[in-house]
Amino acid sequence: MPTVTLDEFRERSRDYGDSLDRLDVFEEDITCSSCSDRLTERFSATMSGEFLCWECAMSHDAVTERDITHSTDPTKAVVGKSGLNEKSLCDYVINVATGCTHGCKFCYVPSTPNITTRQGMLAEHADVESGQRDWGSYLLYRDDLPERLRGVLNRKRTWKQTPRGRGVVMLSSGTDCYQDRRTGQITRGCVIELVRAGIPVRILTRSPSVVRDVDVFTAAVEKSESSDGDLVRVGSSIPCLDDDVVRAIEPGAPVPSARVRALRTLGEHGVPTYVSMSPTYPTQTRQDFETLFSTFSEIGVDLVFHEPINPRGGNFNMTIEAARDAGEDVLAEQLQRIKSDQEYWVSYSLKHMSWAEEFGEKYGVDVHTWPDARVIKNVDDELSRELRGQKSSVSPETFATPPFPASKTT
Ligand code: SF4
Ligand SMILES: [Zn+2]
Fold this sequence. Notes:
This protein is α/β, with parallel strands linked by helices and 410 residues long. The protein has 15 helices and 14 strands. Bound molecules: iron/sulfur cluster and zinc ion.
C-alpha cells in the first residue's frame, strides 16, 4: 500500500466490504513513517497522522494544540475486566484513550487508580503535571486497539459473565469513545471486532458523532436477530436538557440537545438506545423530569439509568467552582448545600429517584436506579429494603450471550 496516514487508512476501511468488515493494519504492508519498519505488533501515529512503529512512537514527543496535549497511551491491556457489573452495565471495558477532552467537572475518572497510579506515565508521555488537576487537557490515544483486540479474541477461551454484567463490553467508562474523529475510528474498529465475535457491546458517549457508525450498529442489529438478545446498545448521558447549565459543568462536551438529536437518529434506524441521567442536578424540578422523560419516550429511548449527584471527592469542589464561574449561581449554591448538609442531599436524592420512577412509568421508559449506599443508610427500613433491591437488580435489557464458556473467576 502506498504511503497513507492513519486517518486515510481508517476512512478507507469504512468503504471496504460490508459494515462489519474492516481493513487491518497488520494485514497491510504499512511502514513506520520514521524508521520505515513494517508495522507488525503495536503502532501509533503522529498528531498529523503519520504511522509510527511502537519504538518510534515511544520516543515521539507529545504535541499540544488548542490547549490539549495529544500523545500515545502505552497501556498493554486491551479489554479489561470491570466492576461495573455492580451497576448492571458490563463485565468488561475498553477505554480507547487515557484522558478526556470533555473535561466534565464532576468526572470521577481522574480520581480512580487509572489516573492516580499513572502519574509517571502521564508525565513521561504527555508532560502532564497532575493527572487530576489537568483533567480535560490531555488525550493519549490507543490507535492499535482494533488490531490487538482481534488477536485477543482469537486467543480467548472463556469470558467473564456475571449475572448483572452479562459478558457485555462497554466503550468506554474512562473516556468518551467518540470525542473526536480519531477516538471514533478506534471505537468503530473495536465494535466491529466484538460484534463479529458475537460479544454484546454497550456504547456510552456524549458525542453526537456516534451517528457516523449507524451502519455498524444497524448491521449489529441485523446480526442480533439470529442471537438470543441485542449485540449492541447505544446510550448517551443526558441528565438535563438545559444546554447552558450543562455547559457550565461539562465545558468540553457537546450540548444535550445535540445528544438528543443523535439518539433520535439512531432510534429511527432501529438501534436500541438508552440514556444515562447521571448525575441529575439539584436545581432540576419535577417539570424538568417530566420534560426529560417525555422527550426520551418520543425519541424511542426505552431505558434510563438514573443517579443523583454524589458530593464525595475533590472534584465536587471543582464542580461548584465551575458552576459559579459560569454564572450559574443557583446551581453553585445548591451544590454547596448538598455538600454541607447530608439531610438535604438525602432528601434531594430521594425526590429525584421518585420523580424518575413516576415519569418512567408515565412515559413507558424503564428506569434503572443507582441509589448511593449512604442514602440507603439514612432512610427507614422499608425504604432501605426497596432501595437495596433497586441497587442490586439487573437492568431490563436483553443482551446476546457471548459465545465463550463463562470464566470461573467471575
Ligand atoms: S465524558 Fe465521561 S469520561 Fe469524559 S470527562 Fe465527562 S464524565 Fe469524564
Ligand atoms: Zn519506527
